[in-house]
Amino acid sequence: MADIRLKHFKSVPGSFWGTPKELWGFRLKVPGRPAAAADKFLRAHADLLGIEQVATQLSPVRVIESVGASHVLLQQQHRGVAVHRGYVTVHVAHGGEVFLVKNRAIPRESLPGRGAQFTIAASDAGYLALESLGRAARNAVVRAPVRRWYPQSKRVRAAYRFRVVATKPRREWLVFVDAMTGAVLEKWDNVAHANVGARVFDPNPVTAVPDWRTLLTPSGTPRRKLDEAYRTVTLEGLKPGTRLDGTRASTRLTRERVRRTAKLDEQKSTAPGFLEVMAYYHVDRVVAYLESLGYQGRRAIFTKPVPINAHGTDEDNSWYSPELRGLYFGTGGVDDAEDAEVIVHELGHAVQDAICPDFGQTAEAAAMGEGFGDYLAASCFASRKPPALRACVMSWDAVVDGGDPPCQRRLDECVTYESFDHRPGAREHENGKIWSATLWDIWNAVGRDVADRIILESHFQLDAFTRLARGARASLDADRNLFAGSHVAALRRIFHARGIGPVE
Ligand SMILES: [Zn+2]
After folding, report:
1. Are 15 and 105 in a shared domain?
2. Are residues 91 and 151 in the same domain?
3. Are residues 131 and 98 part of one domain?
4. Domain shared by 100 and 134, yes or no
5. Ligand 1 centre from 373 Cα, in Å?
6. Same domain, 101 and 143
């Protein structure tokens, strides 16, 4: 065999078994396909990893392919039983270089000897698992047991793993029972973790207090002690798991993600997970609202959870990435995701892009993108704001900028299509005010429910290069299709007053 012994590398020590849990800082060419290369590498370095004599217990479970590498996952077996969490992963670049090994295997001397047996009958253990769950599981079914070696601090126990499932209401648990003593070693409640309470701003502190000036310190910086500004809510739509991954939103683009068990219903805006919770909660709620308008099933606007990076940059900027179809929030100034109207504005771009791919490739379409985002934010939160703030969006994001009331933009400015700046380099947010003011007029004329339905439906006949006049005509068609044209006259008046047309 060629010499595949590492000469230089770095390692991360493990905390339980006295073996390294990571080897990195090297690139070592190993011949063979990824699974074979992983096997050769592990055999050549079994002493380094503390897995002499156990390397043969590692069986490849799967090879995961990414753009730049293959990732070989191996599971440790001992006396024919899998070791709980006993995985080793070997990461192989496409050029055949191994560059990382992660090691959770238990070394031979720490594995249980002949004395460890599955002495309790599985059916008895299943009964103990069910009993440990109490009343909540009284109608539950215990699925077939799986034998596992279960590490508990530095000892490894023989254990049965049971999945316990109840319907109406749906509950699901994983329970580990010691196969010698009958003790319950671990209970994992998937559904309790799927309904998580959390504190949020809804939409932001400016709208929650009687006088926004009390939110600033004497030197004019935002106050961080904002007890009156929070609302306690339930995070909905979460899938089983430990992070904020749901059916409508996922914070998977965020680094150092918060865990659901981190007492999210007590955390303040300065806590590391607050921005992630804000983005998850508000994206989930708005997408659920779109579903309630009929955009679900085969009419769903989003076919996958909207991905979120809650700390996308340390600049004071947020954006939607059409390439990654994800939302990115900046942490410069007031953190953008502390203001739910910034979140919903960015989601507005995602909505348009999902309906009309790459929306916004002309000055007018870009302005409509900004105007729609502001409209969606204003529409979604109007009922939670005092009347004087309803036409203002992103007040908390702009609280230090000196406006009264503070806001990034208003939707009720006296602007018409005549003021549209067609020069190259014109600011789409400024131009966007013409469109947001027009949409806001519709909202005020026909009410939220009708306005949102018409405006969303109109997007399905637009494209990436659309114009305000086209958007206006699309709104008339949407009204004819949804409401038999009963708002056409009002819509015409509004577009005419804003100088947008011709509408027919
Ligand atoms: Zn925008």
Report:
1. yes
2. no
3. no
4. no
5. 6
6. no
Q: What is the mean pLDDT of residues 180-190?
A: 88
- Asked whether 264 and 193 are in contact (CB, 8 A), the reply is no
CA of 277 to the centre of ligand 1 (A): 21
Q: Are 367 and 420 in contact (CB under 8 A)?
A: yes
Q: What domain range includes position 68?
A: 10-110
Statement to judge: residues 343 and 430 lie in one domain: yes
* Residue 352, in any domain of the structure: yes
Cα–chain center distance at 87: 26
Domain tally, the chain: 3
- For 132-157, write each residue's pLDDT tens digit: 998 878 889 999 999 999 998 888 99
**b/e per residue, 173-201, with b = 16+ CB within 10 A?**
bbbbbbbeeeebbebebbbebbebebbbb
84-124: per-residue pLDDT in tens? 989 999 999 988 999 999 898 998 888 998 889 999 999 99
Residue 479 CA from chain centroid, whole number: 34
The pTM (predicted TM-score) of the whole model is 0.66
User: How far is ligand 1, taken at its centre, from the CA of residue 322, in Å?
Assistant: 12
Q: How far apart are CA 181 and CA 201, in angstroms?
A: 48
Identify the band that residue 170 occupies on the pLDDT scale cut at 50, 70 and 90.
Answer: low
Euclidean distance between CA atoms 78 and 92, whole angstroms: 26
Q: What is the pLDDT of residues 353-385, one digit of tens each?
A: 999 988 988 999 999 999 999 999 999 999 999
* 496 CA to centre of ligand 1 in angstroms: 26
Do the domain assignments include residue 40?
Answer: yes
- Cis amide linkage into residue 20, ω under 30° from 0: no
- Pair (29, 178) in one structural domain: no
Q: How far is the CA of 369 from the centre of ligand 1 (A)?
A: 7
